[in-house]
Design brief:
Helices cover 28% and strands 38% of the residues. The protein has 4 helices and 8 strands. The protein is α+β, with helices and mostly antiparallel strands. A 5-stranded antiparallel β-sheet has the order 1-8-3-5-6, covered by helices on one side. Strands 2-7-4 form a 3-stranded antiparallel β-sheet.
């Protein structure tokens, strides 16, 4: 069996980290699938998915890490194409990935005790984000 769902939410931009746990829990509780796999995919090229321990210190570390590695405000070649300011956003997102797959067992994701699925919005402005969610299993 395959089920397709969407997760939509607003973001602030500029390395906004969103914990997706409540959205995922709702999808799993409403799903007919008990065991299988959940695949999440970001629609857009300035956002990414990963897992972390969602705690305030690490949220600051993530922000500082990406800002040091690929800083905002530098004149990226991408800006010449679209006359915008989000070249850093595209580069930062490209270091992670737009998708993640996680096993489902007994209507719960198989994650570590301190592990949460997160979305990071790297764009330079607030946006409405959508993540496509596909559940496969029985």
């Amino acid at each position: 069996m395959i089920e397709n769902k969407k997760i939509s939410f607003p973001t602030k931009g500029r390395i906004d980290v969103v914990n997706l746990s409540s959205y995922i829990d709702k999808i799993l509780s409403d799903s007919a699938i008990n065991n299988g796999q959940m695949h999440l995919f970001v629609i857009g090229s300035t956002g990414a998915l990963t897992t972390i321990e969602y705690e305030p210190g690490l949220l600051k570390d993530i922000n500082e890490f990406f800002e040091r590695l690929i800083p905002y405000g530098v004149d990226y070649h991408h800006h010449n194409t679209w006359h915008d300011d989000n070249g850093s956003s595209h580069l930062q997102a490209s270091l992670l990935k737009p998708n993640i797959s996680i096993p489902i067992e007994d209507k719960k994701l198989i994650l570590g005790k301190w592990q949460q699925v997160i979305f990071i919005d790297f764009d330079t402005r607030p946006r409405q984000r959508t993540i496509h969610c596909q559940l496969m299993g029985e």
